[in-house]
TrEMBL record, chain B:
Lineage of source species: Archaea, Methanobacteriati, Methanobacteriota, Stenosarchaea group, Halobacteria
PROSITE patterns, per the entry: TAT (PS51318)
Domain of life from the UniProt record: Archaea
Region (Disordered): 215-252
Entry protein name: DUF1102 domain-containing protein
Compositional bias annotation for Basic and acidic residues: 223-239
InterPro entries according to UniProt: TAT_signal
Organism: Halobellus rarus
Biased composition (Acidic residues): 240-252
């Protein structure tokens, strides 16, 4: 639907219409348009990242999904008080210390088109390798083999695979940044 | 449905009566009324036409009224679910979000133009060549071709012009759209390398300047290819050869 407004002005002898507007040319044009953006914590955002279960392995901290392994309240549920992951091992955390359903966290597509999910890790030397995996299929989600396209409104329960090979035992915890990528599925 | 409003103003008072005063058939001044017709069209059909794409991401484009706006908060829709899937509070904090394929820009004028965008935070409609992407938002379009990569270190639309100055600079840092052509799939980039994204209600200014107003505008190739908005690290590239290694699963 186009809304047109005609503006007709007669001016005595000063302007000639063909000179100014007759050609339809423009040498410069600028149009101002508005942009509105809202941000949200991870659980309510376009790519909704939610922690699942209790035990503190997965939490929402400062509006962002975060992980502690072992969980901050692991001992309340296991009464085993683990101090850390073993070295030279591959662990899979498919759920929190206390969780009836599977999944340590979930990724939900609340956008407008199907996306494929995978993670990357920028700093890998001297720290554990962290890879997301689909807890239903067990497949790790990497750039080369991301998840199947996740339709809008659907969520993918995920776990974390932690590889501690070549990572020495130390008192201080390792601080690792996990980058979760969601890329529109190619046509 | 087309609604027309006419505004007619006749201004002739300066010159009328001159014929009576002279009376000889000679004249020192002539007044001749000429009409000027100015059609103001909606964005979709204007000289610089701004139209939503056919992509699902065009849901973020509000075409209510004649001027399009970009609304990532869903406030233009009757319900959030018309735009998003589920109840969404906004874009993820501390993330880089790319929303491609928002709208197309078509040159329906008679001159080839360079198109760029500027932030206009105070909304007064003037160009503000600020320090760049302090709001954590930018726009991109066009082909990330060798020319722009070499000259600009990438192809962007937002505030690119500040890198080379306004017209008459030898290298226009903007994307060329020739007559009748379309710059397809203008998209937005939020956060990430642009800095923290916060809630925004701002204006952007889309500018088209004739190629002829640049000294060396002719030497810049036209861009009408689809922009690879993912840039250098394209996740759509074919995966590297799988080395076949499997990670054995141990225990939790």
């Amino acid at each position: 639907m186009i809304n047109r407004r005609n503006l007709v002005i007669g001016l005595g002898g000063v302007l000639s219409s063909s000179f100014i507007f007759g050609t339809g040319a423009f040498t410069s044009l600028s149009a101002r348009r508005s942009v509105i953006v809202q941000t949200s914590n991870d659980s309510e955002a376009v790519l909704s990242l939610k922690e699942i279960g209790n035990g503190g392995r997965s939490i929402l901290k400062n509006d962002k999904l975060a992980f502690n392994l072992p969980g901050s309240s692991e001992n309340e549920y296991s009464h085993t008080d683990p101090e850390g992951l073993g070295t030279d091992s591959v662990y899979r955390f498919g759920k929190d210390a206390r969780n009836g359903t599977s999944g340590l966290f979930s990724v939900e597509n609340r956008g407008t088109q199907p996306v494929q999910i995978y993670n990357t890790q920028t700093e890998t030397s001297g720290v554990p390798d962290v890879t997301m995996y689909d807890v239903e299929t067990g497949s790790t989600l990497t750039e080369d083999s991301p998840s199947l396209p996740l339709s809008t409104g659907n969520q993918l329960p995920c776990g974390l695979e932690i590889d501690t090979h070549g990572v020495p035992v130390q008192e201080i915890e390792y601080d690792v940044t996990l980058t979760i990528n969601a890329v529109a599925a190619s046509d | 449905m087309t609604s027309r409003r006419k505004f007619i103003a006749g201004l002739g008072a300066l010159a009328t009566g001159s014929a009576a005063a002279m009376g000889t058939g000679a004249f020192t001044s002539v007044s001749a009324n000429r009409g000027i017709n100015v059609d103001v069209a909606g964005d979709a059909s204007a000289f610089l036409s701004l139209e939503p794409t056919n992509s699902p991401n065009s849901k973020y484009v509000n075409t209510e009224g004649n001027a399009l706006s970009l609304q990532f908060d869903g406030s233009h829709a009757e319900s959030m679910s018309e735009v998003y899937s589920g109840n969404v509070g906004g874009l993820n904090v501390d993330a880089q979000t790319v929303i491609g394929e928002l709208f197309n820009i078509t040159n329906r004028g008679t001159q080839d133009v360079f198109v760029y965008m500027l932030q206009d935070p105070d909304g007064d409609g003037t160009k503000e060549l600020g320090s760049g992407n302090e709001n954590g938002i930018s726009f991109a379009a066009g082909s990330a071709n060798d020319y722009y990569n070499e000259q600009m270190g990438g192809t962007g639309l937002m505030n690119t012009q500040e890198k080379s100055g306004l017209p008459n600079h030898p290298v226009p840092a903007a994307i060329r759209v020739d007559v009748g052509n379309t710059m397809p799939d203008v998209g937005a980039i939020f956060g990430g390398y642009l800095g923290d994204l916060s809630e925004l209600d701002m204006d952007i200014t889309i500018v088209a300047e004739a190629v002829s107003s640049y000294e060396d505008g002719d030497t810049v190739p036209e861009n009408d290819e689809k922009f690879d908005i993912y840039g250098y690290d394209d996740p759509h590239l074919p995966p590297e050869e799988d080395n076949g290694e499997e990670v054995p699963e141990e225990s939790e």
